[in-house]
Structure formats: structure tokens, C-alpha cells
């Protein structure tokens, strides 16, 4: 065998396959709740008004496409840092622009791997399916902790805390900052406080994945848990994405932030991140960051972005409330946050819904609440309840 003969065929990405299946379904009543992007009530994933205007401005003011450097757009990173951590945040927090939240998670995992072989990362179950491949490729050993109980639709907080008590000083804990994917079950304020206390007492390092800030309860409340654990910890990492809250998914726009123990240490860590970036993407794609910076620097565009984000968040909450009101068995959906929720369906029941009703969702029972329109919520609820009987 030469080179490519040695490779094994890979399973197709099931969610991407699902999108294709849904598109090919001719039934006008079909419902696609598989895809993981925001949709408006017409089923579109719109370009936000402020983003469109900022793109026009960029087209006018940009005079060069020359290289920008491995850090990316530092002003963009600074503006996002203020949204994540608040103005006047800890000066030992530094960040660099990354290709989306994926790039941030990957470079964060690489930094952990580079720091030392015995550091482990504790990962809640279930979690976003790309977490393990991103972290595993970097070579950081993973320890699972139980996060969510499918039977009760609640966070199994006792089990989570019990697992985390097995973490050693310097171990990393992966946490979803808000809008947990795939469950929608977010830690409440008391639970965040308990984790912050544990992190501080044991010298653990939070690694917060903040991919949906603004789509749960709003920009500020969605950052509260992240701020709490980062403040409590001596050192921390935050993988941030603008891809959902600016609706610029394909522009691959995010940041990795780290909190170090001292300015000197922050500088060393930052230097390592720059070195790692050079070995992967050299420098991040500019367009999304430039657009987000223009939006954030212009008070009118910023206000309009905020208004549209607030509308998106309100739509998510409205569909959740409608589902919760449809039946007591769906009531838990009303108390969750973000676009995703899990239905207590078996893979066979999920396939059954596809065949009988043209409802497309992941085999795990995860569905995107804004895949539903005001017209399809009741139909969806009725079909799901029938399948659950
Ligand atoms: N973290 C979570 C929990 C996500 O759901 C996603 C995207 N689906 C990401 C990170 C990565 O986001 P991005 O598209 O910005 O890479």
C-alpha cells in the first residue's frame, strides 16, 4: 500500500446527512429541526441588518487585504473581551482571534497539551459531539462526568460535583457558558457558585465554551456563569464564538481568551498561542471579525445588533414556551435555554417521526426549537407526543 490505500473510510457526518435528507423530502409539511443554526419564523437564517450594513462600510473603507498577523484583529478581540468579561476586566485576561469557536477550542486544547502530559480535561456527558474529537486530536486525556439525566430532563448536579471532586489540582473542567448543546439545560446561579467554589478550593482550571452568548437570557445574563468561574479560578480558558450571536457562521469568527496568574505569565501563554496558531491556520480569516468590530464600534449599528439579537432570543423563548404549554410532558422545555433541547425518544422513534411526519431530528432526540415556525409548533408537539405514547 502506498499512502491513501492505508486510510479507512469514515462514517458520514450524520447531521449533515440529515440536512440532505430533509432537503430531498418533497412533503410541504416537513419540519427540519436537525440543523443547528438560528432560523426565523419563515425558516430562513438571515444576515443581521447591522452585519449587512457593516459589510457595506467595510467594502468602502478597506484598502488592503495584506496579512494581519496570527493574533487577528486585536481591536475586535478587545471589544468581544468586554462583552464576555465586562469592561475593566482582569488585566491578566488576554485573547487572540480564532477561526470560530472550533478554532478556539482546538488551540486551547493544544495549549493544554503543550503544558503537560498529566493534565486531564473533564467533559460533561452528553456534550456537543465535536468536543471530544477537537480535544482528542490535540492529545489531552479526557475524563467524562455525568451532566444530564435524560429521564428527569435535569442536570445531575450531584453526580457532576462528585466527578469533579475526583479532579486533581491543575486539571481542566470543560463547561458550557450558556445554552447547553445538546440539552438546553443550563447551570443555575447556585450551581455556578458551587462550581466556582470548587474550582477555587481545588485549583481547577475552567475551560468555558461560550458559543451562544445572547441567545439564552441576553448578553449580560448569559455571561454571568463564565464570569463567576473565571473570577474564582487562578487560571482559566474561554472559547468564544461570534458565529451564532452575529449570525456569521461561515465567516468563522471567534476568540480564545485565557486568564493567567500574572502579566508575565499571560505574555508567555499568549506567545505560545501565537506559535500554535502559526502551525494550524497561521492567521484567522478577517472578514467576520472586521464586520463585528465595525458593528461594535458604531453606536447605531451596535444598538441595532443588540435589538435583533434580542428578537432572536425572544423567538427562541416563545417557541419554548409554546412547546412547554402543549403538554405537561414537554413542560421542561420552557425552563431551558438556547436553541437545543432533547426529547426522550429512541433512535427508532426518531426514524418513525421522519417517515410518518417528515420530522427531521438527530437520532439522539436533540432538536432545534427554532427549526419550528409559529405554524408548525403544535403539529410538531402532537407528533412527538404520539411517538412517545
Ligand atoms: N461549541 C458549541 C457548544 C457549539 O454548538 C458550536 C457550534 N455548533 C461550537 C462550539 C463551534 O462554533 P463555531 O461554528 O464558531 O466554530
From TrEMBL:
Its cofactor is pyridoxal 5'-phosphate. One of its GO terms (biological process) is L-phenylalanine biosynthetic process from chorismate via phenylpyruvate. GO terms for molecular function: identical protein binding; L-aspartate:2-oxoglutarate aminotransferase activity; L-tyrosine-2-oxoglutarate transaminase activity; pyridoxal phosphate binding. Transmembrane segments: none annotated. Keywords: Aminotransferase, Pyridoxal phosphate, Transferase. One of its GO terms (cellular component) is cytosol. Residues 29-383 form the Aminotransferase class I/classII large domain. Belongs to the class-I pyridoxal-phosphate-dependent aminotransferase family. Homodimer. This is Aspartate/tyrosine/aromatic aminotransferase. It comes from Allosphingosinicella ginsenosidimutans.
Amino acid at each position: 500500500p502506498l499512502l491513501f490505500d492505508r486510510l479507512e473510510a469514515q462514517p458520514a457526518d450524520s447531521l449533515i446527512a440529515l440536512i440532505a435528507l430533509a432537503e430531498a423530502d418533497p412533503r410541504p409539511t416537513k419540519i427540519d429541526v436537525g440543523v443547528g443554526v438560528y432560523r426565523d419564523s419563515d425558516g430562513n437564517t438571515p444576515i443581521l441588518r447591522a452585519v449587512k450594513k457593516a459589510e457595506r462600510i467595510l467594502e468602502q473603507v478597506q484598502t488592503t487585504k495584506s496579512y494581519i498577523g496570527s493574533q487577528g484583529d486585536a481591536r475586535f478581540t478587545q471589544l468581544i473581551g468586554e462583552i464576555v468579561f465586562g469592561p475593566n476586566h482582569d488585566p491578566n485576561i488576554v485573547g487572540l482571534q480564532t477561526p470560530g469557536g472550533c478554532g478556539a477550542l482546538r488551540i486551547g486544547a493544544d495549549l493544554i497539551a503543550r503544558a503537560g502530559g498529566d493534565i486531564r480535561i473533564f467533559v460533561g456527558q452528553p456534550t456537543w459531539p465535536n468536543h471530544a474529537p477537537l480535544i482528542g486530536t490535540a492529545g489531552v486525556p479526557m475524563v467524562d462526568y455525568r451532566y444530564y439525566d435524560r429521564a428527569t430532563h435535569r442536570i445531575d448536579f450531584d453526580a457532576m460535583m462528585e466527578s469533579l471532586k475526583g479532579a486533581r489540582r491543575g486539571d481542566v473542567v470543560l463547561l458550557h457558558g450558556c445554552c447547553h448543546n445538546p440539552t438546553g439545560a443550563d447551570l443555575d446561579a447556585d450551581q455556578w457558585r458551587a462550581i466556582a467554589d470548587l474550582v477555587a478550593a481545588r485549583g481547577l482550571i475552567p475551560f468555558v465554551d461560550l458559543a451562544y452568548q445572547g441567545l439564552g437570557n441576553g448578553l449580560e445574563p448569559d455571561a454571568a456563569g463564565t464570569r463567576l468561574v473565571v473570577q474564582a479560578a487562578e487560571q482559566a480558558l474561554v472559547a468564544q464564538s461570534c458565529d451564532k450571536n452575529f449570525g456569521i457562521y461561515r465567516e468563522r469568527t471567534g476568540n480564545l481568551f485565557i486568564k493567567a496568574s500574572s502579566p508575565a505569565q499571560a505574555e508567555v501563554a499568549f506567545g505560545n498561542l501565537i506559535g500554535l496558531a502559526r502551525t494550524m491556520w497561521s492567521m484567522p480569516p478577517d472578514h467576520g471579525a472586521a464586520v463585528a468590530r465595525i458593528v461594535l464600534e458604531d453606536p447605531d449599528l451596535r444598538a441595532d445588533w443588540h435589538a435583533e439579537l434580542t428578537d432572536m432570543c425572544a423567538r427562541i423563548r416563545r417557541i419554548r414556551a409554546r412547546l412547554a404549554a402543549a403538554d405537561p410532558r414537554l413542560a421542561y422545555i420552557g425552563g431551558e435555554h438556547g436553541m437545543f433541547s432533547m426529547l426522550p425518544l429512541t433512535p427508532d422513534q426518531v426514524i418513525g417521526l421522519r417517515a410518518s411526519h417528515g420530522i427531521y431530528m438527530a437520532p439522539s432526540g436533540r432538536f432545534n426549537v427554532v427549526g419550528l415556525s409559529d405554524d408548525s409548533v403544535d403539529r410538531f408537539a402532537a407528533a412527538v407526543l404520539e411517538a412517545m405514547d
